[in-house]
Amino acid sequence: MDPRPLNTPPTDPPPLDPPPSYPRPMDLRPWESPELTSWRRLPMHAVDRGAGALSLDDDHWRFQLLPAPEVPPSEDWRHLKVPGAWTTQDTDDVPQYTNWRMPWPDFPPHSPAANPTGVHERDVDIPAEWAGRRVILHVGAATSVLIAEVNGRAVGIGKDSHLASEFDITDAVRTGEANTVRLTVVKWSDASHIEDQDHWWHGGITRPVLLYATDPLHLADVKISAPADGRLRVEVQVRHADGPLPAGWRVSGHLDGVGGLAPDEEYAAWCVREDRVSDFLGEARLLATVPDVRRWSAETPELYGLDIRLHRPDGSIADTSRHRVGFRTVEIVGNDLLINGERVFIRGVNRHDFHPLTGRTVTPDEMRADLETIKRFGFNAVRTSHYPNDPALLDLADELGLYLVDEADIESHDHAHEIADDPRYLGAFVDRVSRMVLRDKNHACVIVWSLGNESDYGANHDAAAGWLRRYDPTRPLQYEGAAKTDWSGADIASDILCPMYASLDEITAHAASGEQTRPLILCEYSHAMGNSNGTLADHWAAIETTPGLQGGFIWEFWDHGILQRLATGRPAGPSASGAYAHGVAADGYRWAYGGDFGDVPNDGAFCADGLVFPDRTPKPALYEHREIAAPVRLARSEPGRPPRVTNAQHFRDVSWLTAEWRLSVEDGGTRTAPAVLPHLPPGTSAELPLPHGLLAELPAAGAAGGGEAWLTLHVTTRHDEPWAPRGTEVCAPQIQVRERPAPAPPAAVSVAVSAHSPDIDAEGLLRHPLLTCPPTLSLWRAPTDNDLLGGAADHWRTLGLDRLVREPVSVDRTDGRIRVRSAYPTGAGPVEHQQVFALLNDDGLLIEETAVLPEGLIDVARVGTVFETVAGLNHLQWYGQGPWETYPDRRTGGPVGHHRARVDGLFTPYLRPQESGGRSGVRRFALLSDTGTGLGVRLDAPRQVSVTRYRAADLAAASHHDELAPRPRCVVHLDAAHRGLGTASCGPDTLPRYRLGPGTYRWSWVLRPL
Questions:
Q1: What residues contact residue 241 under an 8 Å CB cut-off, 6+ apart?
Q2: Where are the alpha helices (DSSP H) in 444-527?
Q3: Burial of 38 by CB count in 10 Å (0-12 exposed, 13-18 middle, 19+ buried)?
Q4: pLDDT at site 6
Q5: In this predicted structure, what is the pLDDT of residue 750?
Q6: pTM of structure
Q7: Lowest CB count within 10 Å: 152, 228, 514, 899, which one?
Q8: What is the pLDDT of residues 266-280, one digit of tens each?
């Protein structure tokens, strides 16, 4: 740590040898020079430099934030943690969120005059034993222009906010002494125009900073080819800091469990014949063939350790590099993407680097938690949207087993077509793609390269693709923009058709057209903003049965809510760890989205579009995906035969799994029994016998304990997996073994003679001791993000569905029933509503309802009943789908059974309050107090039910959860029909079969005290 006070200026170091006559970096104005991608930056490589490196990651960096790069630093310093964006560390420059708009109006390549510039400085002792060695400064990532100085000497410039810059600082340092490292980061630049991605704008150093030293004779790069046939080839490049290579150097290698690698003598001879032996660039090739090779895949991530050694002429070791090798082959055959010869479904998700306290800075442990969550919920692939991720994430993907689409840091969304053909940006496109590939080429997890995102299509893409195809012909490349206007086009810079947000009809029609020329894998689909991901099961039903369709990547993993301290309005920052849990910010904080920091322009809550909350708490849609991606499937057989179980995996048998039967009977509780999974190779099926007596003991329909029955196979991990402990639930496939008996007509008695007859007032409203608001018609929900951005909310508002007024028509008391007719005027005409009340012999109250929607009333949110209970009912028990939230077009992941939860836990805290907490297929439920008293409801058919502490109007009026005040009573919705969720915030709305139109709706329910 620097012992000097913060405001003490650094002491000028004694003069070194006269430096070369370099221009001052500021004179180059690198922040407005797109042709300048770097200066004195070393070539990217894949050599492991972690061993012996000197980390500079801590909070001892001196820092000051300047208003513009032209402004010289003052003497006013503070401390800042590195890595870490200054925008999350209590500076006046706060995060800003835009989806695609640039934050300033100037055209590329210009940057704004007000351009926050962070000066990071610290002293570091260079070990004396590094004398005579080559010393390298490594900066993992900086947004967006990095200017590096050591001891007052400029040592280099780098651009690309998501790849490392390395500089040779040997001539600028003094070993055995303290040296001053200064890293100046300019936030806005010409490069920002091609980093216009859909996430928060930050400024600062966001990945680790370190120093390392090598022998002058060093490994410059290592390139590994490891196909599935086990034939290993390693290409090594060698350089010397002084230029000429010494005669007699050589390389060797050792593969764990196999042995030494052999020099490729044929290659060496060819180099001699073709005059390809260089005085300053050494090239060597090593070979090995692995017998009975264990292949790498996402299901079986087998890795071999590999050591590469560089020897001096005397045989001593000058340099080493450690690698993990996965043997696998990626190829395209026809319209299929094959992994190790198998057509693999790509069950992917897009992932940004994100943390609610630190912005883009993510530790390896946090990355592991991300990928473990992704694996646990059935995903096998990640798209690194929209830039190369930290190298630690690729190491983890190799280890845990995830396919990666590795994406270059190129998105020029606001000025896409102009930049795509702008020769000033040609070098940047090629530089960003090539440096990503050079860094990540040895990772088995990388199966596809991506040229970037939403940057139109132009000559700059073709140039980058040309370099990539020449350098790495072993992997396909993709780019959505290349085929955006012609899905069947030839000679484009994409081997995969990877549209975004195409409709189900569009992709199935293309697959059936006979014009498909490449695999179709959606790069983005099923936009997860708020209560969303409707029709996901419909998509996968089509994908799994349609040749040519192979999967896609859900948008996206994270809700990008930055934790905001309400008292200051600023990001809470790294010190606020623990100020959130279970997706909810603690009192005094909230999850911030665009505009909450006063950032203008902004795109509001569009950054809250993930499958997990900002603290990585899973949203209900994750459970939907987990069941859709289940490795074990269950199906009914012909009558009298056991159910059939299928292994839906591509490479692995089911021996890593264990299972248990769960039989849920509507009127009879839940029984469990062990299940023994048979030996099932990938893609095979077999009968799965049921334990003796499990179904035989099922009471007859209509008898006590009878009723509807469902059989669930609860599948968990048998042993600890690298991504999940033993006993982790993997899936829960389910079949119905008995349908619900048709309800018998209720036995009603005359309300006129009963002392407990329903109390209906003159307006026709029910008065009940357990209800504080009587049951009335509901046609509206608090708009979801999909409803708002897709237009449904405006449609409902125009019709007046958000402000329905009940107009009583008549109250008739005949034959022991009370018949109440009402009308609800709307912009499309009145809705006729009828309720018939009748007292049952068991003290239950039967309510039969009918609603007639006029012809002009199309696409409403719901048709059903809403009422409110007395306070104190804090617990819900139900038979239906659950335990998590489900909706009509997102319910595959909610098995039917007996569930229970606290009422406060039923509500889903989406970042912008909206409709949530519903459960599909509910047959009956009970709302209970802490002492077990309360009310019960039995429904005529499986219905959509929600029980929360909020009225729809409460949710619609709030923009954040700190504005919500839960009511002491329960707000209950019983829906005869409920509109699907869809994904219309960015993509297709729900399918027609999940929409509600005009016509007659009937439903009934029985209310009884408990």
A1: 134, 168, 170, 216, 217, 218
A2: 459-471, 504-512
A3: buried
A4: 47
A5: 44
A6: 0.95
A7: 514
A8: 999 999 999 999 999
Residue among 533, 496, 604 nearest 988 (CA) = 533
Peptide bond into 109 cis (omega under 30): yes
Which segments in the chain show pLDDT lower than 70?
A: 1-23, 700-705, 743-757
Which has the closest alpha carbon to 677: 599, 611, 639, 731? 731
Q: Nearest 5°: phi and psi at 364?
A: -55, -35
pLDDT of amino acid 21: 54
DSSP SS3 for 915: coil
Strand ranges in 198-266 using DSSP code E only, listed in sequence order: 199-201, 204-214, 217-225, 231-240, 250-255, 259-260, 262-263
Q: Which of 411, 480, 524, 666 is catalytic?
A: 524
How far apart CA 42 and CA 5 sit, in angstroms, is 35
3-state secondary structure of 284: strand
Distance from C-alpha of 79 to C-alpha of 77, rounded to nearest angstrom: 7
**Do 493 and 451 meet the contact criterion of CB atoms below 8 Å apart?**
yes
> pLDDT, tens digit, for every residue of 706-758?
789 999 999 999 999 999 999 999 999 999 999 887 765 555 444 433 445 68
- Please name every residue paired with 850 in a beta bridge, in sequence order, or none if there are none: 834, 1002
Q: What is the 3-state secondary structure (H, E, C) of 751-818?
A: CCCCCCCCEECCCCCEECCCEEEEEEEECCCCCCHHHHHHCHHHHHHHHCHHHCCCEEEEEEEECCEE
The pLDDT assigned to 859 comes to 96
On the 0-12 / 13-18 / 19+ scale of CB atoms within 10 A, 797 is middle
Determine whether 524 is an active site residue.
yes
In three-state secondary structure terms, 679 is: coil
Residues listed for the chain: 1010
**pLDDT for the residue 602:** 96
What pLDDT, on a 0 to 100 scale, did the predictor assign at position 752?
38
d(CA 812, CA 946): 30
pLDDT value at residue 705: 63
Alpha-carbon separation of residue 321 from 134, 221, 569 (angstroms):
16, 9, 47
| Angle (deg, nearest 10), helices 536-543 and 620-628 | 20
SS3 state at 574:
helix
Q: How many CB atoms lie within 10 A of CB 933?
A: 13
For the question of residue 454 being annotated catalytic, the response is yes
Six-digit token pair at 582?
Answer: 């279970």
Strands 729-731 and 709-717: antiparallel
